[in-house]
Amino acid sequence: MVELVARTPCEGLLPYEAGEAELSEIIPKRITSLAPFEDSTLLKPLKTALGVELPAPGQSVKAKDGRIVWTGQNQFFVLDAEVPALDAAVTDQSDAWAMVALGGAAAIDVMARICPLDCAHMTASQVARSLIGHMPAIIIRTKTGFEIMVFRAFAKTLVNEVSHVMDAVAARGALST
Amino acid sequence: MRVDGKGLVHRDQSVSFKFDGQTYKGLAGDTLASALMANGVRLIGRSFKYHRPRGIMSDGPQDPNGLVELHRGDQITPNVRMTQQEIHAGIDARSQNHWGNLTWDVLELNDLMAPFLGAGFYYKTFMWPKAFWEKLYEPIIRRAAGLGSLSMAHNSDDYEKAFAFCDVLVIGSGPAGIMAALTAARSGADVILCEEDFRFGGRLNFESYDIDGQPGAAWAAARVEELSEMENVRLMRRTTVTGAYDGGTYAALERVAQHVSDPKGAPLETFWRIVAKGAVYAAGAMERPIAFRNNDRPGIMMASAIRGYLNRYGVAPGKRITLFGNNDDAFRSALDLQAAGLEVAAYIDSRPDAEIKGDFPIYKGARITGARGRMRVDGVTLRTAQDQEVWLTTDCVGMSGGWNPTVHLTCHMNGRPQWNEQLVAFIPTPGSVPGMEVAGAAGGTFSTKGCLKSGIFRAKTVLDAIGISAKTTPAPEAEDSATKISPLWVVPGKGRAWIDFQNDVTAKDVALAAQENFKSVEHMKRYTTQGMAPDQGKNSNINALAVLADVTGRSIPETGTTTYRPPYTPVSIAAMGAYAQGHGFAPQRLTTSHVASVKAGAPMIEAGLWYRPSYFPKAGEVTWRQSCDREVEMVRNHVGVCDVSTLGKIDIQGPDAGAFLDFVYINTFSTLKVGRVRYGVMLREDGHVMDDGTTARLGEHHFVMTTTTAAAGQVMRHLEFVHQCLCPDMDVRFISTTEQWAQFAVAGPKSRDLLNGLLDAPIDNDSFPFMGCGDVSVGEITARLFRISFSGEHAYEIAVPSRYGAALFDALCTAAKEQGGGPYGMEALNVLRIEKGFITHAEIHGRVTAFDIGMERMISGKKDCIGKTAAQRPGLLGDTREQLVGLKPAGAVKKMNAGAFLFSPNDEPTRTAQQGYSTSVGFSPTRGMLALGFLRNGRARHGETLKLVDHLRDLETLVEVCDPVFLDPEGTRARG
Questions:
Q1: Which residues from A are below 8 Å from B612, CB to CB?
Q2: Residue ranges of the SoxA A3 domain (chain B) (predicted)?
């Protein structure tokens, strides 16, 4: 029998550190997309299993064994936790996204160069769909920094572009003024 | 010459630098301009047109003459402003715009030719003969023109782009800006304070004013110190706000590492986009020159710059200085010079009634009529109030025609400034930029006390507007003198009096423009090129329009200004385009087989953002055609593997999923059985074909649609539009799963054998018939298998979660090898589909209908679908349409090109005679050159011989029209 070896999206590319910013890969246990049908009573098993309601637009909530992240109109990603059998549009997205954590004191300065949003004023657990460079992205504010998700195929560009900016921010910090 | 006890430079920190190859010493805190002035260097450049010797004129970024080239090789940066550039040990500045060296410039000949080279010279002279313009005149003129040079290599410097957000953006840090920032910051607002200079304080650093009993510069430093300690304040120096845009967005350019010898990886510049809820614009004012004969000689400067260099840098621009003005402010330069112990040769005021006193020669009601000296002014002639001519020896002249408020940003959103008779200046029209208030001299408030008060008041107005209650801040004590000025633009007389120093436009040129009927200020500007140099008329616009108003007999407000547009000062394209060099231009989407493909030597080609292998060369293959031919034969006779993950995959679920698909596709999907796949075509609302692909039914309410690589985003957007706008009642949801699955085509007569060697349980024709689909297991991983074919062969597409993509591609290639096969690329894929007459976006390019591609019968009569009615419109059906056909060589020339046009063999190949065109061409190893194309009434014309002409690539050949399916029209191979 053939043995298929699994690879992560950013394999061999991360972690990376420059000055006061760190970039590392996050590998969620699973990513499941969830789009409720019109009859919202069908979502009861979800609340029973995960213990929370779906988050409001622009928000994510902590759930049992994971998180639920708003990702668009009537669309959510369940991270880590297993989604129970549900009468809703559910797809496996575990392999579709490259997910990284950007942390450190300079994380906000790095975000200011790669994302057009006012990231400094995002509050923990807030979520935004925006751009990282020219890549469509899901951005989650955490207590320690940001989590960024882009299409898996963008992984190399993501790491190249963010690490380049991290280098520049570190170098600027080191400049004599 | 340095003056003891003056200036904000660090006397104990000597810095050596180079200018035109010679080493000089300056002090930390110097600009290139001040350091060279301290070294007695007066000649720093040549003028643009006449190559006249020039010196530093002003102490700000508007200086028309002080432009140098910095750095070497691919990092060359032209037109760096010497008045802004801080000196450091690495500086190796070169003067610009001379042939030969700066002192002996060959092109100074132009100055002797001046009588022939006036405004409009080019337009009148280089007209005949017509052909000479492009071949002779233009190249010569172009060689002589241009400021600075570029390396023509890719710039290896780093630049940066960034975003910033705040409640209140304060532009400028003079007295008005500092008070505005303090008021906003003390009220708790998030404040960004931008200062173009490397030192905060604005004019206070150049003047001798006291504020609250403290020297102005020290007062500014203390306030900025306070601001720097506040968490809600961001101080950005070396940052020029260059434009005001919609929605409170401002552009700014920060010079990050231009002031150090080694940036050590830091960007040279950052292009900022600042989004502010409100803004206080406190950009100050700029002094304007007076036009008199030879007023451009080195050593003739702005009156304020003379005291500016003295107060800021401790440099005296001359030993025996003459001042010439029409306002009280100019007199202050004389007082500052005298206080520093410098000799004032004379103070000349054009106002007979000026209330000024001093113990140096004062001429009231007098005017300088001309300057003498070539490389350096050595004297001036003046005409006194008694109409006597007086000759003065002087080595430096300061002139002041009054001050122009820096209205620029207030005009960036179509605002027009208003003329103020009392100030003799244009001032901003309130409300020109929504959310932006103008404070201080930029708004026409010139006294220091007035500026301080205006900063507080304008900040309060902005805070009010954005809902922050302002805390009261008292205005400090400072001078509060009224503005006294009487207009003076040009001193009449013979000879050339400069208006635009940078583009060499004189008062005469402006008069000539009017004489030749270019009387509108916009026409005059273009005729004379006044205001079109890098300084964008900062020194000349108002003077030029005043002269124009005079010669045309109109008033200044009637004449009006030209349009102030962003950027305020030049912005490097490299900064605006930061991150976009090379691969930064567009992100790359790489498939899971990318590394293996590159390792196999496959040249990668771009398909949208994706990268796909063109072909997989084997040892001994020299041309791509050899590899492509082999890969085609490999698929036809054995088996080939191709990564098709780039095709769009859209997961569609919901009780109305079938009905939804029926509405977007021309054919029916609600009747498709679970476990089956169907080919579908979708139309745009205008009835033309949008995309095609296969859709599989995975469950009762669950489909997976595939799109072409090119149209994946467009189809997703289309589905959202149809659902949200056209049938919002349908209970259906969709999401892209393109990236979730790594999908590979396995094509060829041995495809099933290959798969059965890999799958955990074998398949056969019953479990997976043609157009069947279902789950399989490979290496205990659940995979999706689709029996579909884009090559016409017995073929499958197998999809696994992307994490296993690389591993599966390796396993498939290894297994293919055992069957006499291997991977194939886009070239072979293209030939295989052309042989079968399968279409891509080369055919469905946006202007073709289902009728054109022979699929109109697929449009179901039993249901409605998007584009159905529109597709029936007159002109979209029938024998006038260009219809899909196959083309084969029919003459001696066996070559065909895609994008060539079809003509009757006897017709001239002209636009009106064209009957169709070719879209795709490929070489079939078994059938020779094949092409697909569109031909008017083509389906009825199989067998005809036509002429195929490619006008661009010089090809003319005869072709035979045939059926577009060249191979296996019955489709038995795919079903085998």
A1: none
A2: 494-578
Name the closest residue on chain A to residue B158, using Cα atoms. A168
Question: How many CB atoms within 10 Å of residue B895?
Answer: 14
- Closest CA in chain A for residue B272: A113
Q: How far is B658 from chain A (nearest CA, A)?
A: 14
- Domain span at A69: 31-92
Task: Say which of A5, A96, A171 has its CB closest to residue B737.
Answer: A96
Residue at B270 is within a domain: yes
Closest-CA distance of chain A to residue B862, Å: 28
Contacts of A83 in chain B (CB under 8 A): none
Q: Report how many domains make up chain A.
A: 2
Whether residue B109 is predicted with pLDDT greater than 60 in this model: the reply is yes
Task: Give me the total of CB pairs closer than 8 Å, taking one residue from chain A and one from chain B.
Answer: 152
Which of these three, A73, A92, A111, is where a domain ends? A92
Give the side-chain half-sphere CA count within 13 A for A143: 1
Residues 725-744 of B with CB under 8 A from A: 731, 733-741
Rounded to 5 degrees, what angle do the CA atoms B913, B919, B922 make? 125
* Identity at B799, one-letter amino acid code: A
Q: Write out pLDDT tens, residues A113-150.
A: 999 999 999 999 999 999 999 999 999 999 999 999 99
Domain closes at, from B150, B184, B203:
B150
Q: How far apart are CA A73 and CA A65, in angstroms?
A: 24
- The nearest alpha carbon in chain A to B164 belongs to A112
Q: Test A134 with B586 for CB contact under 8 angstroms.
A: yes
**What is this structure's pTM?**
0.93
pLDDT in tens, B11-56: 999 999 999 999 999 999 999 999 999 999 999 999 888 889 999 9
Per-residue confidence band for A177, with pLDDT thresholds at 50, 70 and 90: low
Are A21 and A56 within one domain?
no
B620 within some domain: no
Query: For residue B622, what are its two tokens?
Result: 């020299």
Of A96, A115, A174, the CB nearest to B264: A174
Interface of A with B in 43-72 (CB under 8 A): none
> Any alpha helices (H) in B553-593, and if so which ranges?
556-559, 573-576
Tokens at A72, concatenated: 């668009």
| Tokens standing for residue B971 | 């489709």
> Where residue B136 sits, what CATH number does that domain have?
3.10.20.440
- pLDDT band of A48, cuts 50, 70, 90: very high
Q: Is B83 found in the same domain as B98?
A: yes
CB atoms within 10 A of CB B879: 11
| Residue B185 sits in the same domain as residue B265 | yes
CA distances from B715 to B660, B683, B719, B722, B842 (A): 14, 10, 6, 10, 17
* B363 falls within a domain: yes
CB atoms within 10 A of CB B606: 11
| Cβ <8 Å between B610 and A153 | yes
Alpha-carbon span B357 to B341, nearest angstrom:
17
> What DSSP character marks residue B551?
H
**Same domain for B536 and B436:** no
B397 and B409 housed in the same domain: no
In this structure, are B41 and B70 located in the same domain? yes
* pLDDT tens for each residue of B221-250: 999 999 999 999 999 999 999 999 999 999
Pair (B87, B192) in one structural domain: no
For the cut 90, the answer to whether the pLDDT of residue B417 exceeds it is: yes
Read off the CATH number of the domain in which A122 is found: 3.30.1360.120
Domain boundary among B150, B167, B199: B150
User: Quick one: pLDDT at residue B284?
Assistant: 97
Chain B residue with CA closest to A168: the answer is: B266
CATH code of residue B654: 3.30.70.1400
Mean pLDDT of B113-135: 75
Strand intervals (E) in B591-720 = 604-607, 610-613, 640-643, 648-653, 677-683, 689-699, 702-707
